[in-house]
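Lab notebook: predicted structure, single chain.

Context: the supervisor wants predicted structures on file for every construct in the current expression panel, including those that have not yet been purified. This is the next one on the list. No modifications to the sequence; it matches the entry in the shared construct table.
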Amino acid sequence: RSFAQSLLRFLGFIFWGTAAVQAFGGVLVVLMFKNYRYLFQESYLSLPGWLALATAVILLPTGVLAVSISVKCSRNQQGTLMYLLLLLLCLEISSAALARSYCIRTASQLESAMGYLVHQHNWTCYQDPGRSAVDVIQRKLQCCGVHNYTDWLKASSSSRHHPACVPESCCKEKHSHCKGDLGDVEQLSEEGCLKKLEDQLRFAMLYVFWCCTVLSILELLAGVSNGILMRHQPFHDLRIL
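Prediction complete. Output recorded below exactly as produced.
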């Protein structure tokens, strides 16, 4: 019983700390799909992030109950804690499963979505408006094309006009006078946008997945500890039933 109380108190403090960790993961996923919404049309893809944020909010009162129960056992508090742990377990298993599933699903959509943006982009040498979705991505991630700058040459080869340049958004930040001229390839971003987008997506989703997995294990331990304490405090006033 004393070990269960000590473990529950320790887990209560852990829940407070992991609430911030979980909130960071939720914000990371939500902002990623918001910033690149023109690549991910389905609004439900940010659901793992919102579930992680809901989990972070519920972890705070759960930690308070775990610490208070370890000091002074209360039947009402023990029951409330058990319900909150069950709710958290459902949320985290759902969030982990969705994050893993969406990570695999959206990775296959990124290449076609980026390819479509590249082929739809309308630019001419030295007259690059730089306002399209693909320009925003290239400037933000410091990348060029889907795989590299040659994707822009393939996109322009289907038309009569073959610009010997790429959009100015492919230029590196340190080269302020760069106009996307292929004669100065060293001034262009070398890496394609697809790999950088996949890395960001994989990091955000796996972050949420592993946070939820570890927290689920800790909540099972808290549930077992709470159950041990409940066994040592039976329902004396309801034995007549």
